[in-house]
Design goal:
elongated; 6-stranded antiparallel barrel; 28% helix; 6-stranded parallel sheet; Elongation Factor Tu (Ef-tu), domain 3; single chain; 9 helices; Rossmann fold; alpha/beta; 24% strand; 300 residues; 12 strands
Length: 300
């Protein structure tokens, strides 16, 4: 995959293109891009995906958490076979450019795009008020059938964010088409886990805009030294120890190596339970043993 961040680079001419933020590169996005790739293949020309960074909400100072970081999104595009990726800086100039002007001066004049393939709920231009009837006077625009599941539920980034905010990672994964993950590095913690027989590693240095699922205990895998290991992860504030700060702590059963400073990717598979405040440490240990049994049983 060729990645471009400047329109003056040697981007292929006459591409069939699509435009969007593509947060999460979920099944709906994959369906659209596959349609784009097929059209380009049969036309004998190249495909070009145009994405934005940062998210418009971030640019305008509105709070939002994202399904995929900058680097994660690039890897996802590559995994589905995108040949050419142009990442546009979403700045004030772009935000204030109308859809027709953007099409004529940018897509056609500078990039020589031959056709646009757009998602059912996608738009571009100032305030997203794209007049596609007007744009079609300048360039062919097609809208593939939207991607839905059998129960007619539309797949979109907003729905997936809601799933994750509610801890419903299995539903989120179904819509994504892969397991939601968080990447960070292991940082020093309170080291309470090792005193009760459950040594944990604390995940820190997580991208500030990355969405963190709901508090609770999750069955996960941890990518350690190119190996995927079963793990249990707690997201929460450690209420049994009167904690206040949100933390992500994971435990890998029967694993004793020091992970401090290592970059770790945690892949979410299932939520076991919500966060609980226990009256005694013994009660906590009993529950942790049950969580461990549930985690090990999941992988069996």
């Amino acid at each position: 995959m060729k990645i471009y961040t400047n329109i003056n680079e040697n981007i292929p001419k006459n591409c069939i293109s699509t435009i969007g933020f593509f947060d999460g590169v979920h099944l709906g996005h994959q369906f659209l891009i596959k349609h784009l790739q097929e059209k380009a293949f049969f036309a004998g020309i190249e495909d070009l995906v145009i994405s934005l960074w940062p998210h418009p909400s971030i640019h305008f100072g509105r709070p939002i958490k994202l399904l995929s970081t900058y680097s994660e999104k690039i890897k996802l595009f590559e995994s589905i076979g995108v040949k050419n990726l142009l990442i546009l800086d979403f700045n004030n100039e772009l935000a204030n450019t109308g859809g027709k002007k953007f099409t004529d001066e940018f897509l056609i004049k500078k990039l020589t795009i031959s056709e646009l393939v757009m998602g059912y709920n996608n738009s571009f231009g100032k305030k997203g008020d794209t007049d596609f009837d007007n744009i079609k006077k300048s360039i062919p625009v097609s809208f593939p059938q939207e991607f839905t599941f059998a129960n007619n539920i539309k797949v979109n980034s907003s729905t997936i964010r809601i799933f994750l905010e509610n801890g419903e990672v299995e539903d989120a994964n179904k819509f994504l088409g892969y397991n939601f993950s968080i990447t960070g590095s292991v940082v020093s913690g309170y080291q309470i886990g090792r005193t009760i027989g459950f040594p944990t590693a604390n995940l820190g240095n997580i991208d500030e805009y990355k969405l963190i699922p709901a508090n609770g205990v999750y069955i996960c895998t941890a990518n350690v030294n190119n190996k995927s290991l079963p793990a249990m992860l707690n997201i929460g504030t450690r209420p049994s120890f009167n904690g206040q700060q949100l933390g992500l702590e994971f435990h890998i059963p029967d694993f004793n190596s020091d992970l401090y400073g290592h970059e770790i990717q945690i892949n979410f598979l299932k939520r076991i339970r919500s966060e609980i405040k226990f009256d005694t440490v013994d009660d906590l240990i009993v529950q942790l043993n049950k969580d461990k049994e549930d985690t090990q049983a999941y992988f069996k």
